[in-house]
Amino acid sequence: MPRKTAAERHTDSAPEPEQGWPAEGAALIDALLAVHHPVRRRIYEVLTADGPATVGGLAARLDLAVGSISHHLKPLHKAGFVEPAPELARDTRESWWRGIHRSLSWSGDDYTAGSFARQVTDAAEWANFQHLNAATAAWMRGRHELPEVWREACASDTFVAATAEQLRDLGERVEAIAREWADEVRADVELHPDAERRPVRFIARIFPSEPGAGERR
Questions:
Q1: Measured CA angle at 69 (ends 35, 47), to 5 deg
Q2: CB half-sphere exposure, 51, CA atoms < 13 A
């Protein structure tokens, strides 16, 4: 029996043809379940930051079993975060994947307290918080090992009384700036493919907070 091609092997996890983006309703819940998992989040970040990779390459990079990588790629594929890249394979034994840049926006308040959807959105927000905190801690531990030109970072902490409308306005402004900057960087990759680059993470969180609300010791 001839070996299936890469495209044929992944038809069972292919997204629905009519699936659009940004994800909404049940598709949004499925997307949150797919990407907000520790292993799948790491796989997705490697594929979107470093470019296409084989299952074996991902396994070596993340120190995981090949079977585990294949298992976690399926829900990412189904939700539209990754896609097969069979044109990169040298033969039918190789399984190449590429990441698809996606952005997710959600609010647990859109769902009834105690519902499955509310549990998923709340869990996703907490998982996202833990992932970004871990990434920040890893950078702080290892930043002095980077070349000097890459050690600089931006940290801003602004604390001011504002209205609810002003809070939303700030969030929209920050999101717009980050989106515009990311689009410019991706376009520059095409113009200057040989420039030295490193993945850069931008984290912003804007929320009401009481004075003196830091962690008690």
A1: 60
A2: 6
Q: Which two tokens stand for residue 129?
A: 């918080």
Segment holding 11, helix H or strand E: none
| Region of poorest pLDDT, from 16-20, 94-98, 106-110, 178-182 | 16-20
CA-based nearest residue to 202, from 135, 116, 147: 135
User: Is 10:45 a contact under the CB 8 Å cutoff?
Assistant: no
Identity at 5, one-letter amino acid code:
T
Q: What DSSP string runs through 146-193?
A: S-GGG-------------HHHHHHHHHHHHHHHHHHHHHHHHHHHH-T
Give Cβ neighbours of residue 33 (< 8 Å, ≥ 6 apart): 75, 79, 120, 124
Among all chains, which residue has been given the structure tokens 């044929």? Answer: 8
Buried b (16+ CB within 10 A) or exposed e, 81-102: bbbbbbebbeeeeebbbebeeb
pTM: 0.83
Please give the Cα distance from 116 to 51 (Å, whole number). 34
Q: Strand, coil or helix: what is 75?
A: helix
